[in-house]
């Protein structure tokens, strides 16, 4: 007999180290920020397909976050410095225009409100027409807010504080395929956000639903592990000694393998960080 969806979730909770009550309790106050990537190198078919799947990945994951009770999520589409590779920009624009009808149908079907942030996005930006249409058509959707950063730069953010503060406060930052957030930092909105590395590309066809549920639980563990430790932590003596022992002497590292639960041909790897050291999760 196949396991039910709830049984699979319970197994993931136990394996990853988050319980369901924590997930439900904190979901409304956590806004993840996902820097999507790998759309040229994470798929066999070169061209627009990877970027189309990246767009659909963002909506699918948003719908799963909504199931858990999350109310907001932020995604990076592209930065202004990506314009140094015009052939890449053309692929992005062509892909978004091509997938736009399906994208809009899915957003409305899942009750997703679409909100965009970035330089000149309502005027001279190449996708201004699509952005205006997307925001207008989903303005009354109330399931979850999906915020997209596009044509974004840190300089734009600093010089446009009124626009910057429309972006939700970010509680956990995720980067696919790369171990940095250079160029994608959001000043004043992610000062207490821990970093999560996902080795694999944000290509929807290479992710199963249960893997996306696992990713949401992983992000919650990152948030919980680092709550209270960023920026203003005061250590009790026994806590300080425990951290020093595990981190400095034991060289703490935790390895979790949940692939027997997710059972997908394309395995995934994420790395989160705790006060003691890294946690590597296969799923």
Q: What can you tell me about this protein's structure?
A:
This protein is an alpha/beta fold. Helices cover 42% and strands 18% of the residues. The protein has one domain: Decaprenyl diphosphate synthase-like (Undecaprenyl pyrophosphate synthetase), CATH 3.40.1180. Strands 3-4-2-1-5-6-8-9-7 form a nine-stranded mixed β-sheet. α3 links the parallel β1 and β2. α1 packs parallel to α8, α3 packs parallel to α4 and α3 packs across α8. The longest helix has 24 residues. The mean pLDDT is 96.
Secondary-structure topology with pairs:
Layout: H1 5-16, H2 20-26, E1 32-35, H3 49-68, E2 72-79, H4 86-109, E3 112-117, H5 128-137, E4 144-152, H6 154-159, H7 161-164, E5 172-176, E6 195-198, H8 209-226, H9 237-249, E7 254-257, H10 259-262, E8 269-273, E9 278-282
Parallel strand pairs: 1-2, 1-5, 2-4, 3-4, 5-6, 7-9
Antiparallel strand pairs: 6-8, 8-9
Helix pairs in contact: 1-8, 3-4, 3-8
Q: Could you write a compact summary of the structure shown?
A:
The chain is α/β, with parallel strands linked by helices and 283 residues long.
Largest sheet data: 9 strands, mixed
| Mean residue pLDDT | 96
Domain module tally: 1
Instruction: Give me the CATH architecture, please.
Output: 3-Layer(aba) Sandwich
Describe the structure using short key phrases.
globular, nine-stranded mixed β-sheet, Undecaprenyl pyrophosphate synthetase, 283 residues
């Amino acid at each position: 007999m196949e396991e039910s969806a709830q049984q699979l979730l319970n197994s993931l909770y136990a394996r990853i180290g988050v319980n369901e009550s924590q997930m439900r309790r904190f979901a409304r106050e956590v806004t993840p920020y996902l820097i999507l990537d790998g759309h040229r190198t994470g798929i066999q078919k070169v061209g627009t397909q990877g970027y189309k799947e990246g767009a659909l990945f963002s909506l699918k994951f948003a719908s799963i976050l909504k199931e858990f009770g999350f109310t907001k999520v932020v995604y990076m589409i592209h930065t202004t410095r990506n314009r140094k590779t015009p052939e890449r920009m053309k692929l992005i624009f062509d892909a978004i225009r091509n997938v736009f009808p399906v994208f809009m149908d899915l957003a409305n079907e899942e009750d997703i409100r679409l909100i965009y942030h970035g330089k000149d996005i309502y005027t001279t930006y190449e996708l201004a027409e699509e952005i205006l249409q997307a925001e207008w058509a989903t303005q009354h959707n109330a399931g979850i807010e999906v915020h997209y950063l596009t044509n974004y730069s840190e300089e734009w953010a600093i010089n446009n504080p009124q626009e910057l503060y429309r972006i939700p406060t970010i509680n956990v930052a995720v980067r696919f395929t790369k171990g940095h957030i250079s160029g994608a930092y959001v000043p004043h909105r992610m000062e207490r956000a821990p970093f999560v590395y996902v080795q694999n590309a944000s290509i929807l066809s290479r992710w199963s639903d249960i893997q996306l549920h696992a990713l949401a639980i992983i992000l919650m563990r990152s948030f919980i592990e680092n709550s209270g430790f960023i920026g203003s932590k005061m250590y009790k003596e026994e806590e300080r000694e425990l951290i020093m022992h595990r981190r400095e002497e034991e060289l703490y590292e935790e390895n979790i393998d949940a692939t027997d639960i997710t059972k997908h041909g394309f395995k995934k790897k994420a790395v989160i960080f705790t006060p003691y050291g890294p946690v590597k999760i296969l799923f």
